[in-house]
Structures are given as structure tokens and as C-alpha cells.
């Protein structure tokens, strides 16, 4: 058997094993073409079928209404940090953001190139330990932007802020896409780099309400405008076909598991195992996120000293629990437990946390 470990890295991140096995099986001969998916034309009927199935998977799993378009783009979520304001900005109206961590800050920075930005709420003064409550966006904002899950700090929205009817809510869901059931109608635009909770690096998923694709001025570079790719079903130019293919296989597996509501249940069980291990540790493990803002996807905590954390990372790796070191900006430990992380991996980590504490407390 091939060696496999439990991979707690934040992204690129673990993928469902059945999806990888399927990719391996068809790597040399995709859909009986005698060619690999890596070699086949993006204009072939086989690719076209796969491309549309990937879109249908997103639509089905997230119950995306008909008046929303689904796009596969390149450039990562970071490209959307400028593409969102570029496409949604309206002269004379503020663009409003909530600052819940490093990714929000990067998005805010890019929006400033396009006009007035208002940060309406922030948790920066308390090292981003929580999601601000009672967020209030202006009625005249061009759009309102939030980061659904803060991969670095381990916080996640538990309810979505409201906006006025004609103020679209835009959400960066790079690290929590499909982690729980949501109502897409609450959002104007959802975007997500695939490499955390959907598939491999190299593709970004966008879900855009139809009325929002026409705001960008015509007099601008072709690929800046979302509507260029909307008009061509994300085939205006060569799409990142392999990344879309793997994402499609990962979604096939998610469907087999019972879809987003089924994975939400498992995700809640997984997160509870680790938060319980923190809460029951008498302060040995110190959770970074406030209990009312805890992420289902990234569990962050610190230990008493850097030495102890280094030791824990090393001992974890010996047990095939890898990638537990926290982000360099806050240090500490982080377990990323995306949809593809099996319950068994989290059980093993929770046991390890208990044993490590008993040995080192
Ligand atoms: C990782 C991450 C990004 C950056 O994604 P890229 O695809 O690398 O640009 C943006 N937002 C969030 C919430 C992330 O976790």
C-alpha cells in the first residue's frame, strides 16, 4: 500500500482519497480517448462534458439558484481581491469591508486602488480572535465584503451579516466553501480558491448573481471583466483543466457522502472533538478563537512555550499527523480539518492531544 498520512496543512490541503485514486486510474486514458486529461483539448467534447459536470456539481451541492453564474477562473482568490472591486465599484459609493484577519486586509488593500473603502468593523485590536457582532453596512454601499472563514486565526462567521436589498454581500469562502449548508441567495458574489476545501491549487470558483456581471466598464482589459468569462462559460481562453477535473472528482465524492448537509454533520463532529480537547485541557491548550467565533475548518491553539509546540509538531509527525504548525503570523498550532479530512484522522489527533498533555503537563 502507498504511504498516506493525515494531512492537516492549511492549503494546498488533503484531498479525498477516492478522488485521487480515480484520477490515477484514468490518468493515461481519459474517457476512452487514449489521452490524459492533461493532454486533451479544452475544445473537445470530452472536456466540455467534464467542465459542465463540474459546474453542475457546484450547482447541485450548493443549491445555486438559476440566476447565478458559476465560473472557473485562474489567478487564485488573491486575484479576486482586485477583481471584485473592479467589477462592482460604483462611482461615489463606498466599498465596505469587515476586517477579520490577514486575508481581509489584503482584500481591503486592493480595493483602495478603485475608490473609497470603509472598514465598518474589525477585530484587529484583539488579534482577530473573534468575528465582530452587530455589523452594519451603509444602505448606499457599492457592495459589502466579508471573509467567511479566517484560515490563519481559526474564526468563522456563525451567521451572515445583513445588507440593504441593493447592496450585494460578497464573501471570500476560500477556506469554508461547502463546509456547511448556506443559502446562496444571501450573497451577491461568492469566491473561493479551490486549494483548501474544494480541490487542488490553480483554480478559483466564483458564484455571481446575474445582475452584478454588467457593472464593469466596457473600456477595460478583456479578462478584467467577469462578463467575458460568463459569456463563454469559463472557456474564453484555456481553463485550468486539471484543477477543475480534480475538483469535480472531489465533489463527486462529496455527493456520495450525502452532500453538504451530510458533511456539515461530520465537520461539526470533527471540530467538537478538537475544541473539547482544548476546553478539557485545564489551560494546557489555549484556543486562539473566542468560543462564539470558532471555525469548523481551522482549529488554532497555542501551548505554554515555543519549545513545547515544536515538540508537539515533531511527535505528531511521528504518528503520521502532519502539518500541525500554526501560521507564521500568530505562531502556535493549527489543525486544518477540511471536508476531505476523515473523521478517523481527527479522532487520532484528539487522542494524541490527550496523551501529549498527560506526558507534558
Ligand atoms: C488561502 C486564502 C486566500 C488566498 O488564496 P490564493 O488562491 O492563494 O490567492 C484568500 N482568502 C482566504 C480566506 C484564504 O484562506
Number of helices: 9
Rg of Cα set: 21 Å
Share of helix, binned:
25-40%
Give the total of domains: 2
Low-confidence stretches: none
By helix and strand content, what is the structural category?
A: alpha/beta
Assigned CATH superfamily of the largest domain: Type I PLP-dependent aspartate aminotransferase-like (Major domain)
Task: State the shape.
Answer: globular
| Biggest sheet strand line-up | 2-10-9-8-5-3-4
What molecules are bound to this protein? pyridoxal-5'-phosphate
Mean pLDDT comes to 97
The SSE order reads: EHHEHEHEEEEEEEHHHEEHEEH
What distance lies between the first and last C-alpha atoms, to the nearest angstrom? 37 Å
Describe this structure in words.
This protein has 361 residues and is α/β, with parallel strands linked by helices. The protein has 2 domains: 17-256, Type I PLP-dependent aspartate aminotransferase-like (Major domain) (Aspartate Aminotransferase, domain 2); 259-360, Aspartate Aminotransferase, domain 1 (Alpha-Beta Complex). It is 35% helix and 16% strand. It contains 9 helices and 14 strands. The protein has helices at 17-25, 45-62, 76-88, 102-111, 226-231, 241-257, 259-279, 306-318, 343-360, and strands at residues 6-7, 68-73, 95-99, 117-122, 143-147, 149-150, 155-156, 169-172, 189-193, 204-209, 286-287, 298-302, 321-322, 333-336. Strands 2-10-9-8-5-3-4 form a 7-stranded mixed sheet, sandwiched between helices. Strands 11-12-14 form a 3-stranded antiparallel sheet, with helices on one face. Helix 1 (17-25) crosses helix 6. It is globular and about 65 Å long. The relative contact order is 0.16. The model has no long low-confidence stretch (mean pLDDT 97).
Amino acid at each position: 500500500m502507498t504511504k498516506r498520512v493525515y494531512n492537516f496543512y492549511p492549503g494546498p490541503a488533503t484531498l479525498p482519497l477516492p478522488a485521487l485514486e480515480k484520477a490515477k486510474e484514468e490518468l493515461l486514458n481519459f474517457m476512452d480517448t487514449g489521452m490524459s486529461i492533461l493532454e486533451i483539448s479544452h475544445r473537445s467534447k470530452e472536456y466540455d462534458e467534464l467542465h459542465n459536470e463540474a459546474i453542475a456539481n457546484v450547482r447541485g451541492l450548493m443549491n445555486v439558484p438559476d440566476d447565478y453564474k458559476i465560473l472557473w477562473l485562474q489567478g487564485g482568490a488573491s486575484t479576486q481581491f482586485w477583481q471584485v472591486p473592479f467589477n462592482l465599484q460604483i462611482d461615489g459609493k463606498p466599498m465596505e469591508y469587515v476586517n477579520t484577519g490577514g486575508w481581509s486586509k489584503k482584500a481591503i488593500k486592493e480595493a483602495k486602488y478603485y475608490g473609497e473603502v470603509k472598514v465598518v468593523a474589525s477585530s484587529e485590536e484583539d488579534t482577530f480572535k473573534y468575528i465582530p457582532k452587530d455589523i452594519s453596512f451603509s444602505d448606499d454601499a457599492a457592495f459589502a465584503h466579508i471573509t467567511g472563514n479566517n484560515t490563519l486565526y481559526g474564526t468563522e462567521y456563525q451567521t451572515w451579516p445583513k445588507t440593504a436589498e441593493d447592496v450585494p454581500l460578497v464573501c471570500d469562502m476560500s477556506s469554508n466553501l461547502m463546509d456547511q449548508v448556506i443559502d446562496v441567495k444571501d450573497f451577491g458574489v461568492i469566491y473561493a480558491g479551490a486549494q483548501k476545501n474544494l480541490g487542488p491549487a490553480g483554480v478559483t470558483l466564483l458564484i455571481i448573481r446575474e445582475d452584478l456581471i454588467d457593472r464593469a466598464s466596457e473600456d477595460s482589459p478583456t479578462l478584467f471583466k467577469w462578463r467575458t468569462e460568463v459569456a463563454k462559460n469559463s472557456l474564453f481562453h484555456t481553463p485550468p483543466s486539471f484543477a477543475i477535473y480534480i475538483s469535480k472528482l472531489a465533489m463527486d465524492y462529496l455527493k456520495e457522502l450525502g452532500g453538504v448537509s451530510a458533511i456539515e454533520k461530520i465537520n461539526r463532529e470533527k471540530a467538537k472533538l478538537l475544541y473539547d480537547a482544548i476546553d478539557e485541557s485545564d489551560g494546557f491548550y489555549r484556543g486562539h478563537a473566542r468560543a462564539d467565533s470558532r471555525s469548523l475548518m481551522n482549529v488554532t491553539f497555542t501551548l505554554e512555550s515555543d519549545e513545547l509546540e515544536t515538540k508537539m509538531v515533531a511527535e505528531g509527525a511521528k504518528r503520521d499527523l502532519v502539518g500541525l504548525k500554526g501560521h507564521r503570523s500568530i505562531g502556535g498550532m493549527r489543525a486544518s480539518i477540511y471536508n476531505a479530512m476523515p473523521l478517523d484522522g481527527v479522532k487520532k489527533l484528539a487522542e494524541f492531544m490527550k496523551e501529549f498533555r498527560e506526558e507534558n503537563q
